[in-house]
User: What shape does this take?
Amino acid sequence: MLKRNYFQPDPSDEILAARIARHDLAALDTIYDRFASRVFTLAAMISDCAEAERIVLQVFSRLWFEANRFNLHDGSFRDWFLDLTRTHILTGLKRQKGRTAQDIVTAIDCWLSEASSQTLETRDELDQPDSGLPVRQALQDLTGEQRCVVVLAGYGGFKPEEITQLLGWPLYTVQQHASLGLQGLRHTMKPELVLQRG
Assistant: This one.
């Protein structure tokens, strides 16, 4: 980890990415500390803990060799890196034979049951101002398919087109489950739940 100078701000993700592109291990350690938990969360949604840990190592290995592909003019490092993570997860799932949409729906429900309340309630992708109702409880009122799509989009930041690849459903079906799921959440939680891409 980079030594902290209390008289200077910590280097930004973008500066660290430039250092990683020059194979700076200390910069990679710092980025790992900042993003490993997020990468693990994305991977654990649709895989077990052992596989999620392997994905974390694979993603940061990719970063070590592909950091030079990051272009500051295309947006923030965070967005670029999480897109890389989601792409890696999608590619890995395509190689797995026999994985069904129901398997992923079940995995999402398992992830929700094991995730801590703090994790669910502090995620910035699902903002519930003044609602007082835990997201976990509201999600349980949805169908499994609706819950799966909302979690993948809201917590995982997966685009509708990416969710179609994950589940093998037509885009229309994914959009319909997302729409009905959000309507259900809005009905259950007050004020209106705001869904943001993460």
In short: The first strand starts at residue 126 and ends at 127. The chain has a mean pLDDT of 83. The first helix runs from residue 13 to 21.
